[in-house]
Design brief:
Elements: H1 2-30, H2 35-44, E1 56-60, H3 68-83, E2 88-92, H4 104-113, E3 122-125, H5 131-141, E4 149-154, H6 156-168, E5 173-178, H7 206-234
Parallel strand pairs: 1-2, 1-4, 2-3, 4-5
């Protein structure tokens, strides 16, 4: 009986390892195509065209401050605040009131303040612990303003789920400002004499040195976000 169970376990592990190997191989193959970025871009550009000036800019929190995601979102939110001077900014970031001036939410405001955004324009949502609860808390803050125009600032992969959550809660006009990274000219990473070569040494190939790894990261990001979207649909958050 024990031997039989052990054989079944080994068989399951064999198929599991084989399946993971196939998935890894497919991910590597796709990392040499544009598909990972296209999927990432599609998530980020959902409702990206702003049809009317926002009343509120929703700055979604991201990890600790300072941090790459948080600083990127603050940068985009600050630029939006300067472009739409009548809009108020809501910083959605969990924090404890007892030490608020030392919190990540306050540090996000300080980053906005460096761009000249005054405290009188800023509101804080500090109770929500995920996208749905943050959106629900903001809904409570703006209970009589379902017709308000919202501009959500978040990472590209998060934009679709975030906007859908706000729409599910009753907001009629929600736009997205995805925090795409700035483009870098990859030709700068190779010498002029190498640029027209069809084949380069592996250590000089931009695809192998950078692009493949970046696209693998996009694949993981999109897969993770896809799982989150499915979960939100199951929970009827979107």
């Amino acid at each position: 009986m024990v031997k039989r169970i052990w054989k079944i376990i080994l068989k399951i592990l064999k198929y599991l390892v084989f399946s993971l190997g196939v998935i890894a191989l497919l991910m590597i193959i796709f990392s040499f195509t544009d598909q990972p970025y296209n999927a990432y871009y599609k998530l980020g550009t959902y409702h990206a065209e702003i049809e009317s000036d926002p009343n509120y800019i929703i700055l979604m929190g991201a990890g600790g401050m300072p941090g790459p995601e948080g600083l990127m979102r603050c940068n985009y939110a600050a630029r939006a605040a300067l472009n739409f001077p009548e809009a108020r900014i809501i910083i959605a970031m969990p924090s404890e009131a007892k030490d608020f001036k030392n919190s990540d939410a306050w540090r996000m405001f300080e980053e906005l303040n460096r761009w000249g955004i005054g405290e009188e324009r800023v509101l804080f949502e500090t109770r929500g612990t995920n996208t749905y609860y943050q959106a629900r808390e903001i809904k409570s803050m703006l209970s009589n303003e379902n017709s308000a125009n919202l501009l959500v600032v978040s990472s590209p992969e998060h934009m679709y789920r975030c906007i859908k959550t706000f729409e599910k809660l009753g907001f009629d006009h929600v736009y997205g400002l995805p925090t795409f990274e700035a483009y870098f000219d990859e030709d700068l990473l190779v010498s002029p004499s190498e640029r027209n070569k069809l084949f380069r040494n592996p250590d000089r190939s931009v695809d192998l040195r950078y692009n493949m790894w970046t696209y693998l990261k996009y694949e993981i990001t999109v897969i993770r976000e896809g799982i989150a979207i499915v979960w939100y649909k199951i929970r009827r958050y979107i």
